[in-house]
Amino acid sequence: IGNTVLHILVLQPNKTFACHMYSLILSHDRNKEGPGSLELIPNNEGLSPFKLAGVEGNTVMFQYLMQKRKQNLWSFGPLSTVLYDITEIDSWAEDQSFLELIVSTKKREARRILDLTPVKELVSLKWNMYGRPYFCFLALFYILYMVCFTMCCVYRPLKPRTGNRTSSRDNTVYVQKMLQESYVAYEDELRLVGELITVIGAVVILVLEIPDILRVGAAKYFGQTILGGPFHIIVITYACMILVTMVMRLTSTTGEVVPMSFALVLGWCNVMYFARGFQMLGPFTIMIQKMIFGDLMRFCWLMAVVILGFASAFYIIFQTENPENLGQFYNYPMSLFTTFELFLTIIDGPANYDVDLPFMYSVVYFAFAIIATLLMLNLLIAMMGDTHWRVAHEQDELWRAQVVATTVMLERKLPRCLWPRSGICGREFGLGDRWYLRIEDRVDHNKHKMMRYTEAFKAQDRGNYDKGSEKLETNRGTLCKKEMSALSLSRSTSRTSSHRGWEILRRNT
């Protein structure tokens, strides 16, 4: 019951009342330090009160709980050293990490905790010491891997075509080699080494990604842009395309260019994932993700309807015409492609002035130009501009969240020997097995002095105001006397308060 009340207090809007009640309940806890403590008992979602405060973005309760956990090590003048308990914050030995919970929640208030002590210092320590070097090395390794795969695709086994052309529009001059013909020369053996590296890399990607999907869940793993959800979809699809290409090569199946082309596009687009390692480029990756999977996906539905309607109309109009003079609409698939190019203003309206064009073509094309170019494209630009404005106002928070998500990802996937645990064990200071982070703080005494001076001025003004109000009560005889007394009172009050205030400043100096 006590643990349930603690979880309820974390969700209370009245933060001050919740903190006092939280301390009152813990004061009656019998197991304050042991594993049976009320603060360590999780709820049905596996969240302790401390983790729940982070997920809900309750910064007041989080700071209150951290103040209870800190240990003052020593202080000398303005300098002081504090040990903060990071047992539940650090993702080292936690199945459900506090940092991972913060970046995976949809509440913006939770990301503000990343700028509070000691979370900010812990993330900075992990990222600067291990996260950034490992991430940059991983980016360089992936780029070299993609260069190897690209060279294997460029020099794939082809041979001249020997069969006759079946149509005047058939322009094929090379065809794919069979498996027995693909690995004969020395250059083919070099390409085989690159292909083996490509296939091994695809298998490694699947081995690393699938356990995280099973642990977190597909909806949460692919749906969070900060966690790199769309990029996980891209890299898994890329690995699957590589395996499909390998199967088609081994079975001598024609048409390997289709999965190979998809793999090239997806593999190089995944390079944008590594832009999150740089503060200048990190927020732009989230901006691109939100535009593609938010604005562009909604816009594509409208675009598909417009293209289908007008492409069908164009095909019907030119169905009776000679395709040699106007070949842009000679069949229905080509009509769809040409209409798509017209929609994006890649090409101008097809016209041949040597022959007569149908009258309905001019009418339909006029309506298409108004709807597609003037209306819908400007609508897409406005939607993307609004998304850019929203992301630009959150770019600092998004950058910190990206760093945390990347750090947790690297810490989980790298061997323990390459990523030692951050912090200090409490045994060195007689604090048990819990881990702490040492933070040095500097107290600015001048700031506190100025606050005391301000309070002194306020106190003098309050005292003079009280005396003046008593005089006003006694001098209510006539209106003239009351105005004169109020005027003299305001002057004396200002002079007295300023005089006494400056006396306090001179005395303290």
UniProtKB/TrEMBL annotation:
InterPro entries: Ankyrin_rpt-contain_sf, Ion_trans_dom, TRPV, TRPV5, TRPV5/TRPV6. GO terms for molecular function: calcium channel activity; metal ion binding. GO terms for cellular component: plasma membrane. It comes from the Eukaryota. The chain crosses the membrane at residues 134-158, 192-210, 231-251, 257-275, 296-318, 359-381. It is a multi-pass membrane protein. This is TRPV5 protein.
